[in-house]
Specification:
This protein has 389 residues and is an alpha/beta fold. 34% of the residues lie in helices and 23% in strands. It has two domains: 102 residues, Urease, subunit C, domain 1; 276 residues, Metal-dependent hydrolases (TIM Barrel, Alpha-Beta Barrel). Strand 2 and strand 3 form a beta hairpin. The protein is globular. Bound molecules: N-(iminomethyl)-L-glutamic acid (NIG) and fe (iii) ion. The site of fe (iii) ion has 5 residues, from loops. Pfam families: Amidohydro_1 (PF01979). Its cofactor is Zn(2+); Fe(3+). Belongs to the metallo-dependent hydrolases superfamily. HutI family.
Length: 389
């Protein structure tokens, strides 16, 4: 198979724990790509001979971002809700109903075109792996077609029938939970890798969340949760107890929550775009990191609480407002996201890993936070091929 050598990399972030430093950095580096996979990584001076060579001009190269939490299957948008929030109206997830109405009314082609445009936007911004949730359909038919759209765009598909109780089930919550863990799960499980529940105030309580998650696990899916976004609650501890790969948001945590996470393999995925767009206090990443918790960063891209597809923006927020160092934030947005998806082939640049990488128009990854809002992603390689730039 044809080999390509990317060399003249000023600073390479590998995230390889066998290398020195928190990011396994290599200066003046090169990587050898064959097919969709990395075959060799190291100093350019000892690089093997390849069929062709691409110079990176001394720039920084990172693993592609791994966005482990995104809601990309929806119709419509909610700019007016955002405007009202910026004038003081609080976020309460009540707007989800508006997106559910528009999503149900949209043809499959529209849902696919919208989600696919967001995936393209993400790729151009350096995101090479994305998780995509259902959750704006909330009927057997509409969750099923949402998962079909998600599965056409990623292998990291998540069934979120338990996003909120839809209006037609008002006063009949138990019936809706039965549907989510029964017929809706049966229709969605073949296209889903993950089961997720919004366990929070105004969404689902601990008992309901447990019922849905255990049914999903019994159907062969792996668990992840939305937890402790809008207030303190049982979600984080439930996730740890059920062995969830990740609990996401983690904005309001007690000492018990932090201790439970620290003693587990569950990742805390922080979603600063949501706090930005809902004008809420940011989660305390420093507290989690100091306790030894594995932290990931993701966009939560959705039309209500966080309509950004930019992992670079999330890195900048995490550094500026959540107490993370630039190195910790970059790790969380790459290797951390991979951990949250139980993947060891992405988020890391070492032989055998996917050849998914991002070339920055900057000498260092620090510029992602140091130059916020600047489009620094110059080129993206996905499966061993350049896809933009
Ligand atoms: O992750 N928290 C629940 N769900 C989304 C918001 C969905 C919406 O407002 O449309 C979230 O923030
Ligand atoms: Fe979310």
């Amino acid at each position: 198979m044809v080999t390509v050598l990317l060399d003249d990399i000023g600073l390479l972030v590998t995230n390889d724990p066998e290398r020195d430093g928190p990011l396994g950095e290599v200066r003046n580096a090169a990587v050898l790509v064959e097919g969709g996979v990395l075959r060799w990584v190291g100093p350019a001076t000892s690089a093997p001979v390849a069929d062709s060579r691409v110079g990176c001009g001394g720039r920084a190269v990172l693993p592609g971002f791994v966005d482990s939490h995104a809601h990309l299957v929806f119709a419509g948008e909610r700019a007016e809700e955002f405007t009202a929030r910026m004038s003081g109206r609080p976020y309460d997830a009540g707007g989800i109903g508006a997106t559910v109405r528009e999503t149900r009314a949209a043809p499959d082609e529209v849902l696919h075109a919208r989600a696919s445009a967001l995936v393209a936007e993400m790729l151009a911004g350096g995101t090479t792996t994305v998780e995509i949730k259902s959750g704006y359909g909330l009927t057997v038919r509409d969750e099923g077609r949402s998962l079909a759209v998600a599965a056409s765009l990623t292998t990291e598909t998540t069934y979120l029938g338990a996003h909120v109780v839809p209006p037609e089930y008002a006063g009949r919550r138990d019936d809706y939970v039965d549907l989510v863990r029964g017929d809706m799960l049966a229709a969605c499980a073949p296209a889903a890798r993950w089961v997720d529940v919004f366990c929070d105030r105004g969404a689902f309580d601990a008992e309901e969340s447990r019922a849905v998650l255990t049914a999903g696990i019994a159907a062969g899916l792996s668990a992840r949760l939305h937890a402790n976004q809008l207030g303190p609650g049982p979600g984080v501890r439930l996730g740890v107890e059920l062995g969830a790969a990740s609990v996401d948001h983690c904005t309001h945590l007690t000492e018990e929550d932090v201790a439970a996470l620290a003693g587990s393999a569950t990742v805390a995925t922080l979603l600063p775009g949501a706090e930005f767009s809902t004008r809420s206090p940011y989660p305390d990443a420093r507290r989690l990191l100091d306790a030894g918790v594995t932290v990931a960063l993701a966009t939560d891209c959705n039309p209500g609480s966080s309509y950004t597809s930019s992992m670079a923006f999330c890195v900048a927020l995490a550094v500026r407002d959540m107490g993370m160092t630039p190195a910790e934030a970059v790790w969380a947005a790459t290797a951390g996201g991979a951990r949250a998806l139980l993947r060891d082939d992405v988020g890391v640049l070492r032989p055998g890993a996917r050849a998914d990488l991002t070339v920055l128009d900057a000498p260092s990854y620090v510029h992602l936070a140091y130059r916020p809002g600047v489009p620094l992603v110059r080129e993206v390689w996905k499966d061993g091929r350049p896809v933009s730039g």
